[in-house]
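Session log. Operator J.P. requested a structure for one protein chain; no other inputs attached. Running the standard single-chain path with token output.
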Amino acid sequence: CRQNALRFAVASGWTAYANRARVRLLCPSQRLRANPLGCWNWFLRPAQRGSGELAVALGAIDAVAQRCAIAANSTSVVGLSAGGAMAALLAFHHPDRFVAAVAVAAPPLLGPANMQNPRSVMRHGLRVPPASAIALLPPCAPLAVIHGELDQVVSPICGLQLTEQAVASHRREVVGSHTHPGQSTRTIEYRAGGRL
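Structure written below.
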């Protein structure tokens, strides 16, 4: 929210990476008419049901892919905060479209019939079991969830709940959890269908 996607991509090094790796980078920004803060409307029911602004993002991806001859099985999606929520929604609702997704400081999926206040969810997490929001969805695309422990906008519990949703979608089992002393990071490994 309140950011320009291309300026953020330049400042965070994404554009430099794209140039070095020779990959295409699409940096969509929300229209202020759609949200006065420039946030993606991840919390609206159409998005939570797999359409709404997700269709806008998919349309932009398709237009670039067609114009630049990008293989259908080579697209990844990355987002931060509201954009991270959109990346997660794309990974869950359209897993066949993405080889990978990364959600940074993102809230969990609310579910198609959510009645919770999205701001409350961002501050305190879901008040219902996280897996209930994704019960009818297929396994999500490979999803990396990155969340800082000191985030004061989107509570760190949201990262844990989003991870729980991804794990539940694949019916995975936890095989290891490691806290890295002095780094404030934790790595959790999962197994699905015999694969790590």
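Operator note: The longest strand covers residues 173-180.
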